[in-house]
Amino acid sequence: MAEEKTTVDMDTIVSLCKRRGFIFQSSEIYGGVGGSWDYGPFGVELKRNIKDVWWRDVVHRRDDIVGLDAGILMHPKVWEASGHVESFTDPLVDCKNCKKRFRADHVQDGVCPECGGELTESRLFNLMLKTFLGPVEDDASLTYLRPETAQGMFVNFANVLEASRRKLPFGIAQIGKAFRNEITPRNFTFRTREFEQMEIEYFVKPGTDEEWHQRWVEERFDWYLRYGMRKEYLRLRQHEGDELAHYSKATYDIEYLFPFGWAELEGISNRTDFDLRQHALFSGRELTYFDEETGTHIVPYIIEPSGGIDRAALAFLVDAYREEKVRKRKRVVLQLHPDLAPVKVAVLPLLRNRPELVDLAKELASDLRMHVTTAYDDTASIGRLYRRQDEIGTPFCVTVDVDSLEDHAVTIRARDSMDQVRVPIPEVRQTLLDGLGRG
Ligand code: ATP
Fold first, then answer.
1. CA-to-CA distance for 163 and 58, rounded, in angstroms?
2. Is the pLDDT of residue 249 over 80?
3. What is the SS3 assignment for 62?
4. Cβ(225)–Cβ(329) under 8 Å?
5. Ligand 1 close to Cβ of residue 413 (< 6 A)
6. Is residue 3's pLDDT more than 60?
7. What is the pTM (predicted TM-score) of this model?
8. Of 55, 63, 180, 375, which sits most exposed with the smallest number of CB within 10 A?
9. What is the gyration radius of the CA atoms in the chain, in angstroms?
């Protein structure tokens, strides 16, 4: 892995996530389960926000992409046609001493990374999670939990085309869970057995595929920048010939410099006409597009930007993390983009034992709540309340103080600059919406 280091280490992020309610270990009271994580009150908001801005940007704000929500369970033949049954495998080695298993490409020097023991020869291990449909657990009822959302879009190509009357180029977008029986889940939520993907399958005329591939690589790279990721922590990496998946003509990975090194956030592949041809072959259905210009049926090529929401969430958290010294004390602040921040505004009364202040603050919070995600908190001193909001990345705090009862104004404090401005109560909502970029 790369030698460069980000400013925060993973332990700090993991403990912040637990302390503040972003991410918990799955089934923690039972000792946890490998490769599965639970998103707490703020984590679920962060993830939803990532999904919402992605959907807004790729579906609602474009005229050429429509959405889909396909089932996790699909016909078992899908996975034969896609090549997953045969080749969705990782090479696996066992340690003869401690019996632990590793991905062969994750170990160095042929010895066990845990105990230094001797390793077995590598053998292939299929990453799909098996399950059975119906009451009988035999081969006839065997299927898999989808390892990617993509296939749902390929098998619905003709349905979507007919229902939406699209012309090439057009795309289908989907967000959903995917499952992979990763041999060694690790690095917190980076590599898990259950995760969420945000994928686009963009259908283009053969011959225009390379140009569209480049356009999507740029578009997707810019998307991470648009939501605040630091450019120097992002890079593009093209797959080498021997690294390419069986369906791919060319693939670029968008990588982020995590505390554990550069690693993939999203892959953008030129899948050629492989998928539609395979499904046409296995299903016996025609999966073509009638090109009016040439009067012929063609099999579109597919450009696929495929990203992981959990990886994006982790990268946004790591990227936003700052430690500052303020009046000789450490301030931890998540400088999340306002669209991603779990809570947009926190309303805080300066004194919690003054009912008039509390009432005014609660009233203001309930008004704001109709417009943006708003928290109300009076459970600690103001300094502590600010620190809590900084740590979860809340862009604005609104403080109601004794003067507010007289001058009908409150103080708005900005997270990043810590600047404070006095604003008349009737103008608070608009001032905040402007500050959040929603004016
Ligand atoms: P890797 O090489 O890291 O295993 P991959 O190349 O197999 O990933 P893809 O099949 O391209 O991944 O999946 C598309 C996206 O789905 C990835 O860019 C990643 O963001 C996400 N993803 C894939 N596997 C996992 C996983 N085990 N845990 C979390 N996210 C994942």
1. 19
2. yes
3. coil
4. no
5. no
6. no
7. 0.94
8. 63
9. 25
